[in-house]
# Entry
Amino acid sequence: MILRHYLTVGDKEHESQRQIHYRESGAGVPIILLHPSPASSVSMEPLVSLFSKRGRAIAWDTPGYGQSDKLPCNTEGLDPYVEALNQFIAGLGLDRPVIYGSATGAQLAIEYGKAYPENTRGLLLDNAAWFYDSERDAIMESYFPDISPQEDGSHLQLVWKMATQVYRFFPWYDSSAPVNKSVEIPLSLVHQTALDYLTAGTEYDRAYRAAFLNERPEQLRGLRIPTRLMRWQGSMLKDYTDRLDSANLPKNIKMCHADAGKDNRFLALEKSLVDLL
# Structure
């Protein structure tokens, strides 16, 4: 069974307290799950169920996403999220969790692993990528459109388009070359993704942008803890993950491969998780 909770963090005296919403299941060695943007911990439920067979699986809503309060408006980059994650881990009294992250979550895990290497047993990274600078700049010009409410409701149509195409194309706005040609995308998943965009609101791109800027091999090279970097058939970012083969990464970072299909991917994830426990 997956349970839902809130943790209050921050300084009450200075009125800087915030609530972090999270889901958890299982017992034993803690395993933190960090979701992509603009999703929430609901997207991690299948992995919470999988990882709970091996330990205490805990999936948070990144601050500003899902049901977690936002970070202060004057903060930028991934560092504030790293500190929020450290507060979360400390607040729950977790002893050196394994940290799983996907996409934005992977970049947050990388930065946490460098800032607090003594606080984690290792990292399990999914959908981590290497974007070339010119390529990243071109993608980011159109990747994060304004979804502010419009009187004619056109922002809702835009959000639905983004939620639909993000599972078909990368980048989502370029429909010339579908990545997932034959995979049927459940309408319920598109609906939940659209809700995630709307719940995060006009700042849906905050952690998202910071993660994009972090998708480069030099960020990985600073890691000194055991790290497993997943590469699976069917990933929207596989071509960009494959580039990391030539990135001269340290020996503590190992590539892990998975064949196509959910079962094969979950099998590879569980095997990699066991290696880190």
In short: The chain has a mean pLDDT of 93.
